[in-house]
Amino acid sequence: MQITGVTQHHVSQPLEDSFGPNWIPGYPQGSHEAEVFEIETDAGITGVTASPSFAGGLDYATPLSLFLQGEDPHDVEGIMRKLETVDLIGPRPWHLELALWDIVGKDAGKPVYELLGGSDDPIRAYASTGEVQPADERIEYVQERVDEGFEAVKLRIAERSDLDVVRAVREAFPDLTLMVDANKGWAVRVMEEETQWSVAEAEAVARELADIGGIEWFEEPLPRHDYAGYARLRDAAEVPIAGGEFNGGPQELYEFLGRDAVDVLQPDAALVTGIKRAVEVAGAARNQGVRFVPHTWTNAIGFAANLHVMAAVGADWCEFPHDPPWTPEAWSAPIHGEFAADGTVTPPQGPGLGVELNRDLLEGDR
């Protein structure tokens, strides 16, 4: 089997209202944007994948074709070496590896998690917010998620003063598992610069979170390349420290592990590793007693890929993005149907990634 070409589509799905994600300070979004790729083969099997995008999109299907044409999609490791060159000179390419697994799974007639030795056992899902909101709005939101069956929620904070929201939610829901994400690892700087913390400031926030209690982890309190700072913070903090969702490839994740810098490692297969390297990193984390809980906040295809990884490695939590207007319906727009969770989620059962493109939403080929 050989790859014969790459087709790219831009997807733009309007949101029902503006959405102000914590990682794009001062720049509300009105739509969900993605680049969808189809990798075609001479066997008539097509693999799909997608990457986050922005209004107007980013066209890079033609150079990708030059790297991939003639390659056997089953040679995941060999193609990953080629993608390292793409990473050197162009956009992050790791999402393309997801399409290889989609092809391999379709060729075998099996879902990816099964090819990787995993099971379809339900995985606990936590409802993941994206905005910093006032306490009364967050309490109402959390009640809705609890009513739906969620037993954990991740709250966002940007400043130390936002801990008042965490306290209010804890008081309203004394037994609910809470994760807290500061989003200091990276940011999209369009309108404003994000506020960053020193290690001492992050330690102070961690102490307050420990006092609040029931915090499953404290996520990205420092810039993503401050490995020494993470190690110091982890050594001092009384709450678990998490990070790694948007680092620059597997080698940076091994840097976290080598420095004993995190309790929870969170690389997104669509952004950082691809599926194969995610499974490898998860094994290394397990050997070191570090939990592996991938970031999933991209789109439905990226979510599906990470879910196959979680099923393969036995992750104990699945991040489930849900913060209206950023709803499962909105971020599932590139595919038919939508992902749903009622406190747990299971991987798709169809061959490959188990998703089908919503071609009514795809814009013209690029």
From TrEMBL:
Gene3D superfamilies: Enolase-like C-terminal domain (3.20.20.120), Enolase-like, N-terminal domain (3.30.390.10). The keyword Nucleus does not apply. One of its GO terms (biological process) is carbohydrate catabolic process. This is L-alanine-DL-glutamate epimerase. The lineage of its organism: Archaea, Methanobacteriati, Methanobacteriota, Stenosarchaea group, Halobacteria. Its cofactor is Mg(2+). InterPro entries: Enolase-like_C_sf, Enolase-like_N, Enolase_C-like, Mandelate_racemase_C, RHMD-like. Residues 1-24 are annotated as: Disordered. Residues 1-11 have a biased composition (Polar residues). It comes from the Archaea. GO terms for molecular function: hydro-lyase activity; magnesium ion binding. PANTHER family: ENOLASE SUPERFAMILY, MANDELATE RACEMASE, MITOCHONDRIAL ENOLASE SUPERFAMILY MEMBER 1. Residues 135-240 form the Mandelate racemase/muconate lactonizing enzyme C-terminal domain. CDD domains: MR_like. Transmembrane segments: none annotated. Keywords: Magnesium, Metal-binding. It comes from Halorientalis regularis. The keyword Magnesium applies.
